[in-house]
Amino acid sequence: MPQEKLDFLQGTLDLLVLQTLVTMGPRHGYGIARRIEQVGADALILNQGTIYAALVRLQQGKLIKAEWGRSENNRKAKFYEITARGRKRLVTEAENWQRVAGVVHRILEADNTPSFP
Amino acid sequence: MSAWLDRLLARWRAVFAKPALDAEFDAELAHHLEMQTADNLKAGMIPEEARREARIALGGTEQIRELHRETRGLPCFEQFWRDLGYAARAGRRERGFTVVALLILAVGIGLNTTVFSLVNTVLLRPIPFAHADRLVWIFNGDPTGSSHSLSAIASEVNTWEGLNETNRTLEQIEAYDPFSVRQTYRLTGAGDPETIVSVDVSHGLFGMLGVSPFAGRLFLPEDGVKNAPGRVIITHQLWQRRYGSDLRLVGKTIQINGEAVEVIGILPSADPFTSVFFPAVRVDVYVAIRNDQIRGRGNTVTLIGRGKPGLTIESIRADLRLALARIKKQYPKRDQYCSANVVALHDWVAGSLERPLFLLWIAAGFVLAIVSFNLGGLLLVRGALRRKELALRCALGAGRNRIARQLLTECFALVATGSILGGVMAWGFIHFLATRSSVEIPLLQSLRLDGMALGFTVLVTALSVVSCGALPAWKMARDIDLQHSLKDDGRGSSGGRHQSRTRSVLVIAEVALACVLTISAGLMVRSFFKLLKVDLGFQPAGLIAVRIDPTLGGSQANFLENVLDRVRALPGVEHAALTDCIPVERDRSWGIYPINQADSKDQRWTGAHIRLVSPGLFAAMGTTLIAGRDFNLSDKSDSPPVIVINQSLAHEFWGDADPRDRMVSVNGNTPCRVIGVAANVCHDGPEVPADNEMYLSLHQVEDAGSWDMMVRTNLPVATLTKGLRDALREIDPTLPLSKVRPMQSLVDRTLSSRRLLVWLIGGFAAIAVGLAGIGLYGVISYMVTQQTKEIGIRMALGAEASVVRRQIIRQTMKLALGGLALGLGVAFIAGRGMQSLLYGVASDDPIIYVAAASTLLICALAAGYIPARRASRVDPLIALRAD
Q: Closest partner residue to B3 among A73, A77, A85, by Cβ?
């Protein structure tokens, strides 16, 4: 799957965005960016603008869908919402992540114990 | 997977919705900034700071926009599109170069695709029959195999049936009657009476060949038995032409020669049987062979067999030899002229075309090579001229990869446009060739534009364009010494010298190839003219053949003499006489042997073409009677039989002795007395030497199905036809008179494939010479441009214009002579392979060599003179200030 070969960070960001939309429901770009900052994941992104590349990527893959609506200050804003395909993707990607993270964690742990004199 | 596909589609769409998407994203960004600023204000910042912090958090707006565009669109494609636009602008700027390059490309690609398609259709691809690779041609022949007349290669029905029963290697053997196509019939009812051509085929032939009916059915075994009801399959074109494509025709009856026959089927519009076996003949109906009705009539059928899977031709050949031996044992009386030779059907059909088409193929390859060299030379010149432009772009910050890509895109644009033009050209040529219904090349009518051929040609040209255009230019851009290139005009640098050597080599090769082509074309053209001058033994000019189908019942001879009397009385008709067998078209042989009064055992059988004629035929044909007399009306059925033979037969029997009053037996019948000797007639056209011939009076032998009246007249065909119609209405109002043909056109038809070949090769040679001229011109004129300053200095120092001119022409000639020497050498060696295609010309014919060399030299002179004149008019002041 080409998606798997995507840049590591890109994949991470996409995963974050999908997870955000699942937990928070439909959101606009700024809302998603704030949420990512709140959970302390802003270390993963260069700046807030990077979010929009992830959003267009996900939208083109029909993992999320977008609609223009009214934001809390009554301005026109583009709201993003996760699709069924997005949820499915999130589940598989999250599993992948956890598996990889587990492996990496084990390796790092093992390396910490000096086995070589 | 589908998310990936959706994304690709969305990206593709995004390329074309750029303004809308940009606007939408700008709105989104504006909203983002607004929200962030508001939050910042809430956090207690002053408005100025809140806005600034919001921008910082978002990142550079322009970069984000760019990132967005790249993510959502197809950056590679968009860039390619931009490059293409640039290439188009550059092409428009250098209009002269573009037009010439595109023209060369189109001609090269068009011609080559046409020839490759032709070779592919006729030679390489299997014949369009089912299991074509297993089909074999089984032909009879005398033991020496020298005679290729139809009667000699056709077989008897008994042999066919015997082979069919006793062979072990063939699934089936089917047959058609090659003589039947020469017979014509009268189609009457519904519209004007019409002369139609019918071919007799065995009932299983179409089934074996995999021809399926467009409507109705094919023949069944019961259609081939004796006294079966009359049934025909008609061709698609007769159905369309005469019956208005009415499908209800199937099952109805039509009137052929006054007999009602049922139409049982209609063939599809592409009739592979006719296009393979009778190219240039318009067959109208097919009739099933009834074996019992033609049994014992001599060699009447040609055989096609289908081998069992996995067998070689050799094993089939050996098997048929055994089978034939068994048959001969069964019927010991069978003469020695009975054999069953086997060749692959494809070889039989296309074998004779192998060499001419191969020659054509090589010629086309040469043209393609010249096109590539020429284009290469042009591109090298252009690349050198663009040095500065490329250096400038480098200096302005274009990356080397960027420039390489740009150059490749330009090549792509050039080749793509050229290919489209060439494809259109090839399509036109192929359409033209496929509609030449009078050219006797099998399968020509089924010629189509061959995708493979087009692809191959385009690939070759693309490679040459890239290797000559993009590669050197890119290398130059890579090695560019910016300062130097921008200041200097590049002359004298090592790269330039290397390139000018490459260009010279290319031009020499072009001239050499053009020289070989010109010589080949010259040889072919000379052969053709020699063939046109061959004495055919009759005078086709002013001779018109009129097909007269005899009325049914009653005496044919009387009817025919009646017809002749009326026609001879027509104004403008010099002679009129009848024959059953006009030259070129018909071909039938009988056996003959001289009866030696001294020794009656002397029976030297030989085969000779037989013609049944009316008195006055020799005069009408313009055939000289060498000795003796013509038939006259006193040679009747009840008077002693007489015969006229040709020189060849007379010589074979009696050497130089006078053949008159000697006795011969034809087909073992009553002895005939030789009354005259006629000049040999080239029966199969000028390329085939004359064979034995004999003439019998139609008043004494009536064994013929249809007659042709040979009318010597200066009247045009239409006028003659009208006169004939009026004159003959009283005798037979239903006489169709739809086959009135000048003999010259029939003779031309025998030369049709050669004529086509000559035209093509001649055209190739002309193009080659033209391209070589352009190539020379390009190199010399570039050289002059490069040396403008030098020339200016020399002229300022007092050099005369004529000296400058001469020097430049000398340089041109040096290149041309180099190419010429190479070309003459190659032509001399390659010419030997052509000998079998030539007629009356040696492959090293000095006249042709001299003519070809002079043509090329004149062309070179012209190509050199134009730049030379320009050089000699250089104004020293302007030249010195240039660059």
A: A85
Residues of chain B found within 8 Å of residue A85, distances taken between Cβ atoms: 3
pLDDT at residue B602, rounded to an integer? 53
Pairwise CB contact (< 8 Å): A61 & B68 = no
Q: What is the pLDDT of residue B492?
A: 44
What residues of A are in contact with residue B29 (Cβ under 8 Å)?
49, 52
What domain range is A32 assigned to?
2-112
Q: How far apart are CA B406 and CA B388, in angstroms?
A: 15
State residue B208's pLDDT score.
Answer: 92
Q: Is residue A117 part of a domain?
A: no
Cβ–Cβ < 8 Å for B625, B676? yes
Task: Let me know: does B677 contact B664? Beta carbons within 8 Å.
Answer: no
Query: Residue B221 is encoded by which pair of tokens?
Result: 């075994």
Query: Which of A29, A59, A73 minimises the CB distance to B32?
Result: A29
Give residue A6's pLDDT: 41
CB distance A1–B68 less than 8 Å?
Answer: no
Contacts of B530 by beta carbon, 8 Å cutoff, 6+ apart: B839, B840, B841
Contact across the interface for A48 and B31, Cβ inside 8 Å: no
Which chain B residues touch A57 with a CB distance below 8 Å? Answer: 7, 71-72
| Contact residues, chain A, for B68 at CB < 8 Å | 52-53, 56
Q: d(Cα B777, Cα B504) in Å, to the nearest integer?
A: 11
- Could A61 and B28 be called an inter-chain contact, meaning their C-beta atoms sit closer than 8 Å? no
Point out the residue among B1, B4, B58 whose CB comes nearest to the CB of A48.
Answer: B58
User: CA torsion sign, B483 to B489 to B494 to B500?
Assistant: positive
Q: Which of A84, A67, A62, A61 is nearest to A29 (CA)?
A: A67
Q: What secondary structure letter does DSSP report for B295?
A: T
Q: Using an 8 Å CB-CB cutoff, list chain B residues near A52.
A: 25, 28-29, 64, 67-68
- What confidence score (pLDDT) does residue B275 get? 85
Torsion of the alpha carbons at B440, B445, B451 and B456, rounded to the nearest 10: 10
Whether residue A108 is contained in a domain is answered as yes
The pLDDT of residue A7 is above 60: no
ipTM for this prediction = 0.86
Residue A44 lies in a domain: yes
Closest CA to B459 of B360, B379, B376, B368: B368
pLDDT at res. A75: 82
User: Which residues does chain B have with pLDDT short of 50?
Assistant: 490-495, 600
Q: Is B31 on the interface with A (CB under 8 A)?
A: yes
Q: Which residue of A has its CA nearest to B24?
A: A78
Question: Is the Cα dihedral B780, B785, B791, B796 positive or negative?
Answer: positive
Residue B424: the pLDDT is 93
Specify the length of chain A in residues. 117
Output the pLDDT for position B483.
Answer: 55
- Name the domain count of chain A: 1
What pLDDT band is residue A16 in, cutting at 50, 70 and 90? confident
Q: Give the mutation candidate from B4, B5, B8, B31 for the A interface (greatest A CB count, under 10 A).
A: B31
